[in-house]
Batch of 2 targets.
Target 1
Amino acid sequence: MIMKWLEAERLSVADLLEDLTDDEWQRETLCAGWTMQEMAAHLTTSTRTGWRDVITGAVKARFDWNRMEDDRARALAAVFSRSELIAQIRETAGSPKRAPMAAPIDPLVDFLVHGQDIARPLGRVREMPPEPAQAALDHVLKSPFWGARKRFRETGVPDLPAPDLLMLATGRTLSTGGDNTVGKSNTRSI
């Protein structure tokens, strides 16, 4: 079931990226400092990252995971055009390959959340399918990688719909219930 959801999300995000105007393509996502180009580059990495990439990248980034992801996304964005990045996402939409140490559901989490990181600053509404969002949230709440337990340690898990909770659990800030439009998110959580 995860692969079916993941393939649909990858294709849907590719459609979203393809639909952006040239101006929107240059705009910043909710991941501070990343344009749509860098985000698209980042999204190509889940099926194209091997152990060598992780080890080399980690050493270069002094073992800072976010820095490693940032460096890789920027390097790929500088090499590949918009159409090439979108084509790469489409080509591997049904691929079960994932980065080393990633759980089978981690690429789905990435696409669900980053789809919002793309859409929300542009004022676009992007529905998050409830069943995949709930499965992704359940995983994120249990996984030490995403940091959700630490985020909710003091406050507990708020009573919000799964898509909003998934955004909060992965480091995004909702200014009011369900509102995470441009200018109202603090985030850089890869």
Target 2
Amino acid sequence: MEIPSNFSLAKNLILGCHISGVYDVNRSQILLDDDFSIIEKWANSISKLNLQAIIFHNNFSEETILKHQSEHLLFVTITHDIQFNPNVFRYSVYSQFIHKYSDAIESLFVTDVSDVLVLKNPFIQPLFIANSDFVFCGDEPTKWDNEWMSEHGSHLRSRIKDFVAVEAANKSNSLLNCGIIGGHIQTIKPLLESIWQIHKNYNFDNTTSFTGDMGAFNYMMRKNYNNRILHGDPVNSEFKAYFDDGTNWFMHK
């Protein structure tokens, strides 16, 4: 994984991953290759704030890349390991990138690309600057203990010894959403690496209809970062509310 030598890497980055040609569990369809419209609003929101993003992808054409690549958006081609669902494999991509370039990075966010907008520059917010050992993430207006998460966590629950204990201890806590994850590099690097290790070691043989990404994220966050989490207002707008009150850094659906 190489960043072109003529591309000046910013110290604060937003990373996204778009893998097409395979079934997308969120849209219930196979995403078409070379469809920039899926990430266009995300990319435009970043450009408007004069921020820099990297989109890791497997199927954008040279024509599309030439048309849309800029100082604000870099396309990096990856090879998708089909053993892992795209929602899971992205953590391998992020871990590889951070391992190689962490010395050049101060802070970053990794976000979904089809349903997330960046509303404010998160890196200049006093709350972000003052909490370098915190993880900033999305959330949902529900608790971890809900029917969907019960089904979603079924595979990892059977593979990770203390998953049930962590889940039970935090069942009344807010459900955290991995569509937005960010922080200072010294905090976010080990988090993303540990999430990938969960998927690599325990989720490679998941045959359920649930990817396990939300289960792994909530498990890791509540187990190792429970006193160092900032979510909800002002980090993200209410999930699926499609509303910006002018204070939030990110909108998620």
